[in-house]
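In practice, a research group might receive sequence data for several interacting partners and want a quick structural hypothesis before committing to experiments. The following worked case mirrors that situation: the sequences arrive first, and a predicted assembly follows.
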Amino acid sequence: MSNLTRADWDQRAQQLKVEGRAFIDGEYTAAVSGATFECISPVDGRHLANVASCDAEDAQRAVVSARAAFEAGAWSRLAPAKRKAVMIRFADLLMDNAEELALLETLDMGKPISDSLNIDVPGAANALRWSGEAIDKIYDEVAATPHDQLGLVTREAVGVVGAIVPWNFPLMMACWKLGPALSTGNSVILKPSEKSPLTAIRVAQLAIEAGIPKGVLNVLPGYGHTVGKALALHMDIDTVVFTGSSKIAKQLMIYAGESNMKRVWLEAGGKSPNIVFADAADLQAAAESAASAIAFNQGEVCTAGSRLLVERSIKDKFLPLVVEALKGWKPGNPLDPDTTVGALVDTQQMNTVLSYIKAGHDGGANLVTGGKRILEETGGTYVEPTIFDGVDNAMRIAQEEIFGPVLSVITFDSAEEAIRIANDTPYGLAAAVWTADISKAHLTAKALRAGSVWVNQYDGGDMTAPFGGFKQSGNGRDKSLHAFDKYTELKATWIKL
Ligand code: NAD
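A structural hypothesis for the assembly, expressed as tokens:
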């Protein structure tokens, strides 16, 4: 916990030195073209930096550096125990610089400083540390061969990894990739979102300080359709790991097919159902959880509980509890340590959210609370947490990922109907079920087509369990030892004895 006050953070924000250049071959550098884009804070519209707008030539430079580093072996062939030590140092450096990183994250994408400091930075450091700690404890296999053969089944680093990440948890999503990618010995080219590039740029320097050799981690800020596309089409990138929308995820699969058939691992969007049965043991806890599931991180969460499925017999009792709980989630200046909801990432995202609120009205849903832009005078992009009741699962606000604090309340009459509605979505990232009946909990959890299912809670999880989606929420998994599969190739070596 930090003792810094709003005034302290404001002062630090004034004094903050922001690096906007790309990081290639161990050095900060402008884009080859010299192009930059403006990084504007959603907190109050202030200009934060001119950031290098990388493109295909920068991607080429980074790939050459990353490949050379991989081939040289100073990192890729380093003993796992030594790589572990460096990864742990890297994690420690994130924590040593936690206040600066948290401030960059909050100014860049608008989330509350308390979340940046207590959730994002420690979560990112933990991903590096956990993966690093694991790497000298993983064993390969010896196959069940005939007597005169020795069959070795080994995992090898894939080589050069392109990591393309989104803006909602910029540092944490990056480190969910960097942890296992670097620990397994790969070189990485990280492309942060153009909406939130600052912590990724800063972290590159910390990697060098930790002892990661130059060229092993490169960071290329820029737009998706320029440098992102160039990486995805590059013939000498072995794997692209991605977190972002399902639309771009599908595009990356096409790029892979059009280029070198690079492996593509996708963590995409969600429209997660949060099912509350009438026999839930603690409706108050369920209501508070439903509120945080849609308001935390301004609703800009891939696993946001954006569809609240409530059994009809308790709807009139339950919904007021959710409305009351949501009053604790009021947007305010994210640099105030007491703020729980900050600004949406930018004007474009705010307008998208407001257009979905209009679609809710137009589609015939009933606005219960919220629905408006607020704090406009600050120059920031703030929207009230919003609830629509009377939502039909076929409505746009129930089918499409809004990525903002807009909750759709849908009623059901039976477990079968709840499961049918819950699964009636292109997505399959997460789901939750609230019931005191253990059989109903298990049967519902089994029937839900989602990569994570929570029972009597929302958003549980840590580095020990895999995280990712079914259906159009993606493939592959971040976190846990399962994530290492994405960064390694499986090799069978047959030795004639
Ligand atoms: P996005 O798909 O618009 O962008 C993600 C990244 O892809 C950005 O870095 C962007 O610049 C890049 N990109 C865009 N077009 C590209 C192209 N043609 N080629 C290569 N790269 C390109 O997503 P976003 O708006 O940044 O993030 C929000 C999305 O991320 C939501 O759908 C959310 O659910 C999802 N998300 C998923 C998870 C998960 O673990 N499943 C976690 C966080 C966010």
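Before designing any experiment, note the following. The longest strand covers residues 149-157. The mean pLDDT is 98.
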